[in-house]
Amino acid sequence: MSLANHLFFYLSKLLWWFAAPSNLLTAILVVGALLLFTRWSRGGRRLVVLGALGLLLCGIAPLGLWLARPLEDRFPSPPADMAAPTGIIVLGGSMDQLTTAARGQPTIGAAPGRMTEAVALARRFPDARIVFTGGSAEVFRTSGLDEAGAALALFRQLGLAPERLTLERESRNTYENAVLSKALVKPQPGERWLLVTSAWHMPRSVGIFRQAGWPVIAYPTDFETRGTDRELTRPILPMSRGLDLTDRMAREWVGLLAYRVGGRTDALFPSP
């Protein structure tokens, strides 16, 4: 990949570490607490209140669900009687390659639906090619492991024939998933490719694949919302779930903007 792609990867990781709502609000709270013991104690009290209220809002209020709903509703699931696809693309982000290697057992760390639905689709469409794309998202890669290796171990255990699998092992983000997988697979005009990823991640993913010249059919998984009005008015407990959800959904909205500004998607908010 080019130098620009490397810079984009490292900057996105670094900047988001500081900009994630939970990290930013915690930093405000800590700075405010430290200022309480200085001549700027009045400002410190204000920062403590701001940080505490912000954490409560992000953790208990359904803010993460409000952010997730439009993302997850953007691309509907394909009909049950859809035509057989040429292949199924499974985006990385589920497998924990470090724990898999350490424990000798395939370990799903997040978004399990990407993997379970991929296996279900593979059995439903026995002639479809399965492409898993995911390398290592470690900022300083020292382990030499990649997510594709962990995915291969899981797929084998679940009975998928290795000859059906194509593994892309170098990508570190969704843009590289699309570009590197396309170069590896070389899809042809008229082919039907399903894209399997989390529903909240689908708009950006489809936009990236389209911009890369690979039209795909969305197959969303791992829904965080239930599609009801009631869930948007009820508090989230435990608070840790609300903070995690807010962080992930805020990152996705920021990612949509950043990828569009960078020319990596075909629209600010891609649609079917």
From TrEMBL:
GO biological process terms held by the UniProt record: Gram-negative-bacterium-type cell wall biogenesis; peptidoglycan metabolic process
Pfam families, A to Z: DUF218
Highest rank taxon of the organism: Bacteria
Protein name: Uncharacterized SAM-binding protein YcdF (DUF218 family)
Chain segments annotated as transmembrane: 14-35, 47-68
UniProt cross-references to PANTHER family, sorted A to Z: ENVELOPE BIOGENESIS FACTOR ELYC, INNER MEMBRANE PROTEIN, PROBABLE PERMEASE
InterPro entries, per database record: Cell_Envelope_Assoc, DUF218, Rossmann-like_a/b/a_fold
Domain DUF218 residue range list: 87-255
